[in-house]
Each structure stands twice: as C-alpha cells, then as structure tokens.
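Morning!

This is the sequence you dropped in the shared folder:
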Amino acid sequence: MNTRIVLVGAGSAMFGLGALGDIFKSEKLAGSTVVLHDINPTALERVAGYARQVIVEKELPYQLEATTSRREALEGADFIFISIEVGDRYALWEQDWQIPLQYGIPQVYGENGGPGGLFHSLRIIPPILEICGDIQTLCPEAYVFNLSNPLSRICHAVHRQYPELKIVGLCHEIASLPKHLPRLLETPLSNLSFQAGGLNHFSILTEIHYRDTGADAYPDVRERAPEYFAPLPERGLFQLILERFGYLPITTDSHFGEYIHWAQEVADHEGILDFYTNYKQSCLAPEMPPLKRLAQGTSEAEHWNLVPIMESIVADEPLEELAVNVPNAGFIKALPAQMIVEIPAVIDSDGVHGVTLENYPLGFAGLLQNQVAVHELTTEAVLTGSREVALQALLVDPVVNSVQAAEETLDTILRRQARYLDYIH
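The structure's back. Tokens below.
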C-alpha cells in the first residue's frame, strides 16, 4: 500500500507518538509512508527518533519521513491530521478565560465558545488556513482531519475559504456515551443503538433504543440519569439541560457552559476549576516514557479513531462513526448549510457520509441557533482582519452582556496578544 499519511504538529509527544503508536498497530495500513511535520525541529526530531527506533527493532512495514518543510510534507498526501496550538497554550488560555471575567462577562470557561473561543479562534485559524492553502495547491484530493480547538470555528473558516477541501473535525468527547450508557441502563453496549449530535462540545443524545427489543430507551435514561450523574463533577448545568430540555448532554459544564448565557447561574464552578487544574497538571506533568507511549498509542481519553477511519477508506470497509464535524447538508434541519455540525457518519472508500438527525428537538435547536452568527462573524473577522467585525462577533454572542465590557475585553486581548493578533485592525 502506497498511502501517504501526514501528521501536522507531530512534535507534540502526546499527539505525534500517540498517533504513530495507533498507526503502527494497523495491518491494513502496512506499507504506508508516515510523514511527521512540525515547525519545532528539536521536538520533531525527538519524536522521529523514537519512531525510527521502533520501526527498526520491530521490523514494522512502514516508511517514515520527518520534515520542517510543510510543502515537502504535504506533497502527494492522502491523509492529513492537524493538531497544533499557537504560543504558550495555557498562559493564553488563561488570558482568554480571565480577562473577560475581569470586565464582567460571565463566561464559565474559555476554550471553545464565548469570548475565549473567539480569541482562541483569532490566533489559531490563520496558521491552519495557511496549512490548508498548501493542501489546496499540493494535494487537493487528500482527506483532512482537524483535531485542534475551537474545532467548529476552525472547520467553519476552512470550509468558507476552501469549500472543495475534504475537511472533517474529530473530537473524542463522544466517548462519554459508550462509557456511561451501558452502566446507566445496565445492559451491554452491544445492546444499545443511539445517535447524538449538535455542535462540537455542545451536543446531546438525540435517541437511544434497546437492540434486543427495539424499545425506546430514553424513558429509562431520563428516569435514571439524574441519580447516576449526581455524584460526578461538573453536572449542575448538565442536570438542568436534562431536566428542562429532556435530553442528555454528551459533555460536562465546562464545555457546555461556554455557549449558554445563563450557564453562570447553574454550572458547577468548583468542578470546572478542578477540571482545568487537573487537565493542565496532567499535560505538563513528566511525560510517559516515549517508547511506552508509542507502544500504547493514544489513550482512551485522547482517542480520535484516526486509524479505523483511514482503514475504512483504503479498504472500503464501511465504518459507523459516532461523531464527525462536517458542513451541514441538511443533517440538522434547524441549522443553515454553512454551519459545521457534529453528527454520526458512515465512512467508506467514497469518504465521510453524514447521517441526518431526524426530528431534532426544537428547544435545544434554539440554543444551537444562537451560535450561527457567532461562527459567521468569527470567520469574517479572521478573513478580513477587522476589529469591528471581531467586536460584532462578541456582541452577538449570547454570553456577552455588556457593550462596554466587550470593547474593553477585546482591546485588552489585542494588546496582550499582539504577537499573534497584529493582523486585527
């Protein structure tokens, strides 16, 4: 097999070594060339060195290349996976989160939605558009999978700028359902058929049935879920959505609360703070030994199904994927075509085929609709470099509660993050 797989951002040990570990376990991808690309030559060579060692010691049927030249990496690519960040991830993330709070904007988190999601987007979308511009020139037929956040806004901007690219956003958040549903319903996962969808980090379980009887399992979910989830952290907003809207969120208060204007009132703030602290500590803690990470591959918490997706395409073996992020082609009828929606999909040699979510609940669809203009204006602000459009993106965001606070927050961020946002005028 002469498949060329490119990992952009491969200098990250977590992403680079984890993805390589998954790929090296695949028999169906044997013979492929895996290309590692990163702008940090030291980190890149470190990952490449461990990968070469394993290939030689285990006589693996893979070719490996490593280069800091993006164009060299992308030439002839079949699959491209993008996982990058800009600058000091945590220092900037904390600015995105804390500065709006300082001016009185009640956002509960600061990564994907709300003001923090806008500022994160303004930094990371431009370099990803540069990557995709090279893909458009060098390998326009390649499948492009974005793993970076804010996933929805990134994919929206790429689709707007390069509508012919086959870009798909992948997120591991959906893994909460296979983890919790069998325990909640006291039945094997194999006995459950379910679908979920919405926007990335803002999605709900839309339907669930028992396979053995065909019966609707949602009445049991609604009855049992409040008690089951009560002891778990970050479930204040989660429980309210379940109670008031009647549908189970697939993620917790930190991510979900970024999109809802009344989240501040009901979210589990201590749980959110603990989650961020623990997540940051785990990421910055001494790394797992590199060879162990290569042997393990991606952990359950990080798993994006990269290898099964590639295998299904190259081997034409249909795969049912629980969640992909793609342009809305009527998959959620309450949202416009240009939105990037998170939905189930079937994947085969012809690519990624979204599954329509019929009868999407009207109430929750209303919350999703609040994000349409936010996404549109975020993309417009990136493409035009307009401060006024960036301000409009804040002012249409349901989390923003003050014109003055929005202006002061934006100006403070533009000053403090000028190194990354000097194109905004």
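Headline: Residues 114-138 form the longest helix (25 residues).

More detail when I'm at my desk.
O.
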